[in-house]
Design brief:
The protein is α+β, with helices and mostly antiparallel strands and about 170 residues long. It has helices spanning about 15-35, 100-105, 145-155, 160-170, and strands at about 1-5, 5-10, 40, 45-50, 55, 60-65, 85-90, 110-115, 120-125, 130. A hairpin with a 4-residue loop joins β8 (about 110-115) and β9. α1 (about 15-35) packs across α3, α1 (about 15-35) packs parallel to α4 and α3 packs antiparallel against α4. About 30% of the residues are buried.
């Protein structure tokens, strides 16, 4: 669901979308475990600000590291609480680049955009997003590594994907 200045868009979900979308939480879990961080996933909760007359539901969003400002919150108010550190959008049937302006207005620091084949990382810079070569949250992680693990998760199962990704992170996080 996306709301932008009076216009609402509702997209239906399919296995083609939800399959890779649900795998990201497993990858994030491995990343934070191996880097000594912690996180809260708030899934596709509604992120909105009346001041920009817009809101949306990410495919997944995360508070990573210092998440004490949102721990235990039952209803999110972005005028009081910080925005997520990371939002993930899976673009299988419909592009999400049009949502970048909304994410920027909400103040989400980093976006990961997966189109079913390639992953791109973006950092909020002033009021827009710029592509980055590695994640700010996990500086050893380039986006081109992740799709192979997503494919493995879809074709060989989540446990195999997690094991292989953990091995990769342990080797590359030095």
């Amino acid at each position: 669901v996306t709301y932008d200045q009076g216009r609402m868009e509702i997209m239906t979900l399919s296995p083609e979308h939800e399959g890779p979308s649900r795998l990201f939480t497993h990858l994030i879990s491995v990343l934070v475990e191996e880097t000594g961080l912690d996180y809260i996933s708030l899934g596709s909760m509604t992120l909105r600000l009346k001041a920009i007359s817009a809101g949306l539901e990410a495919d997944d969003c995360y508070y990573i590291g210092d998440f004490s400002a949102v721990a235990g919150i039952k209803r999110m108010d972005l005028t009081v609480s910080p925005p997520p550190d990371l939002a993930i959008e899976v673009d299988i049937s419909h592009g999400s680049r049009g949502k970048f302006r909304i994410y920027a207005g909400l103040g989400v620091k980093q976006l990961w955009l997966f189109d079913g084949k390639a992953l791109e990382f973006y950092r909020l810079s002033e009021n827009s997003y710029v592509a980055i070569q590695t994640s700010d949250l996990f500086p050893f992680l380039p986006p081109d590594v992740v799709p192979a693990f997503l494919s493995q998760g879809l074709n060989q199962g989540i446990v195999a994907m997690r094991r292989a990704f953990r091995d990769w992170v342990q080797i590359n996080n030095q």
